[in-house]
Amino acid sequence: MARKVLVLGEVRDGSLRNVSFEAVAAAKTVAEGGEVVGVLIGGSVNPLGAELVKYGADRVVTVESEKLAQYTPDGYSQALMAVIGEENPEGLILGHTALGKDLAPKIASRLSSGLISDATAVEVAGGNLVFTRPIYSGKAFEKKVVTDGLIFATIRPNNIAPLEKDESRSGDVSSLSVDIKDIRTIIKDVVRKATEGVDLSEAKVVVAGGRGVKSEDGFEPLKELANVLGGAVGASRGACDAEYCDYSLQIGQTGKVVTPDLYIACGISGAIQHLAGMSNSKVIVAINKDPEANIFKVADYGIVGDLFEVVPMLTEEFKKL
Ligand code: FAD
Predict the structure, then answer these.
(1) Which ligand 1 atom sits closest to the C-alpha of 239?
(2) Is the CB–ligand 1 distance for residue 247 below 6 Å?
(3) Which of 225, 195, 196, 230 is closest to 208 using CA atoms?
(4) DSSP tag of 312
(5) How remote is the CA of residue 235 from the centroid of ligand 1, in Å?
(6) Ligand 1 site, residue 256, Cβ cutoff 6 A
(7) Burial readout 76-88 (b: 16 or more C-beta within 10 A, e: otherwise)
(8) Ligand 1: does its nearest atom lie under 6 Å from the Cβ of 293?
(9) Are 66 and 179 in contact (CB under 8 A)?
(10) Number of neighbours of residue 40 by Cβ within 10 angstroms
């Protein structure tokens, strides 16, 4: 059954985040041969429309305004609701990012719609559109089918492969003028944490440190390994609580959820709250000097040893590749 599906692209520092392309791929499945319409909201997003088309959107609608230069739930929900009003879609897909987690429930409540949040897969099976999502902190998966109304979902970054970029694809990029008013939140300034390199939520490789890293300086060998692998550095809450690193690096139930291709846990015991944020990583390597550490139960490869010896050795070996 062909459907019209809207996809919200996410823009950061003037570029589309990878999750935007993954959302387009999910929308293609939901559309079942129908139309996929990208939506871009921001201060100046028109030039990015063509990029979304190259990744599979059939056309793109943009809403530009000075008032939308920074994300605010009021501003973005007005813009997205206006596009939904114009397009009347049968499906709506957002990334399960900080923005998506904030905006999607607001939109769902405005539309009196259900919402499948944090989907890790979508497929057509037995004539139904079936979403898969983790439950019980990633210990089990449930399958969800929408039987009535709007098919509205957020998708977890790094789980649904984007379509291959096709430079020859072209599609209309049109602007919708929306009078954005009554924004209750005014962003005066954005103060960024000095995180270097790759975005943790979207990284293909994560090198994470726990209390076993022992100090702020103890993270240096992990940063080197992450650099060599083109990955990002993450942490357990134990490491954050001990002030070895910033809370923006925390992975777990009360931190970020990551699903990289490779997760290297260094000096992390593997508490259930930490596993909730990383156990769905494709390959898990654990380095811990305690052979009984819980992290080894979820690890594909375990190295029993001192991380300050093992991590530099791994870095040297990877440098040779
Ligand atoms: P520890 O448990 O102290 O483990 C350190 C490990 O390092 C040990 O296994 C030790 O053998 C090993 N080690 C020590 N030295 C070395 C060395 N030189 N080489 C190799 N290995 C070494 N935690 C999270 O991570 N994320 C969350 O989101 C989160 N949310 C929580 C929410 C709630 C409501 C609660 C109650 C807790 C939460 N926690 C969370 C905390 C969690 O329960 C653990 O306390 C925390 O994950 C432990 O961090 P850790 O593994 O770094 O430290």
Answers:
(1) 52
(2) no
(3) 225
(4) H
(5) 9
(6) no
(7) bbbbbebbbeebe
(8) yes
(9) no
(10) 30
The protein residue with its alpha carbon nearest to ligand 1, atom 39, reads 273
Q: Are 77 and 8 in contact (CB under 8 A)?
A: no
Look up the ipTM and state it. Answer: 0.99
Q: Give the CA-trace dihedral at 84, 85, 88, 89, to 10 degrees.
A: 10
Residue 187: band (very low, low, confident or very high) from pLDDT cuts 50, 70, 90? confident
Per the CB < 8 A criterion, the answer to whether 169 and 50 are in contact is no
What amino acid occupies position 191? Answer: V
Is the shortest distance between the CB of 212 and ligand 1 below 6 Å? yes
Atom of ligand 1 nearest to the CA of 268: 51
Q: How remote is the CA of residue 271 from the centroid of ligand 1, in Å?
A: 6
What digits encode the pLDDT tens for the residues 234-274?
A: 999 999 999 999 999 999 999 999 999 999 999 999 999 99
| CB of 315 sitting under 6 A from ligand 1 | no
Q: Which residues pair with 97 in a beta bridge?
A: none
pLDDT digits (tens, 9 = 90+) for 85-133: 999 999 999 999 999 999 999 999 999 999 999 999 999 998 899 999 9
- What DSSP assignment string belongs to 6-19? EEE--EETTEE-HH
- Both structure tokens of 83: 């596009």
> Which segments are annotated as binding site for FAD?
211, 236-237, 250-254, 267-274, 288
Q: Tell whether ligand 1 has an atom less than 6 A from the beta carbon of residue 234.
A: no
- Separation of alpha carbons 199 and 17, rounded Å: 10
Q: How confident is the model at residue 192 (pLDDT cuts 50, 70, 90)?
A: confident
